[in-house]
């Protein structure tokens, strides 16, 4: 019995000896994890792991404790919840993307961009290189992840140059960086995801029906199904594409978006 207890104590001691890294959103951890690959000598926390309402999430005491115990805290630097984080955490522990990537009119969604994703991967690789032992595997992972976004970026650029007969709408106003990347217009139907009146919903649907082009509506996983079902039922020229901006695998979300709008 004593030997068993000793064994578990050693395991626990080993686990708690690992450095803790905290990430504000899933995509940041996803990039970090892809770069690290099989190297798992760290513990991680994601603050907005499932609930992505950064306007109302309260920081729990346990979350604050984990952040304070973290060796590094990675944030976008633009979200409401992150403003609270930056008040609590030692600035020397924080890696803030906002300091490296130019904002568009203070729009917080800077990571929803293939081009910015390439930049984020570069920045994280440089930061990781100072935190961990640089290895050939780490560099190979970096080149692989970076190349994936380079190739997808080229595909989007080519697609939008050849296709000007489509209209893209978004459920939420979060695609300004992506739209600027390729010189396209993405029109949000809800600016702040507020409750929409039946009259406004009918007006939106009527306007979509009058568009004589292929129309795509990008929606988040948490979209109001009744609203979207009504639009799709009454606007036959509309195709819905689900895009999870808080996915751990952001590349896959962009790839699905590319295929969804007709890319090959």
In short:
This protein is an alpha/beta fold. The chain is 48% helix and 15% strand. The radius of gyration is 21 Å and the shape is globular.
Give a structural overview.
It is a single chain. The protein is of the alpha/beta class. 48% of the residues lie in helices and 15% in strands. It is built from ten helices and eight strands. The protein has a four-stranded parallel β-sheet. Helix 2 links the parallel strand 1 and strand 2. Helix 5 (114-131) runs antiparallel to helix 6 (136-162). The radius of gyration is 21 Å and the shape is globular. 27% of the residues are buried.
Helices and strands in order:
Layout: H1 2-16, E1 19-25, H2 26-36, E2 42-48, H3 61-68, E3 72-75, H4 80-88, E4 94-96, H5 114-131, H6 136-162, E5 166-170, H7 176-182, E6 186-188, H8 198-209, E7 214-219, H9 225-234, E8 238-242, H10 250-260
Parallel strand pairs: 1-2, 1-3, 3-4, 5-6, 5-7, 7-8
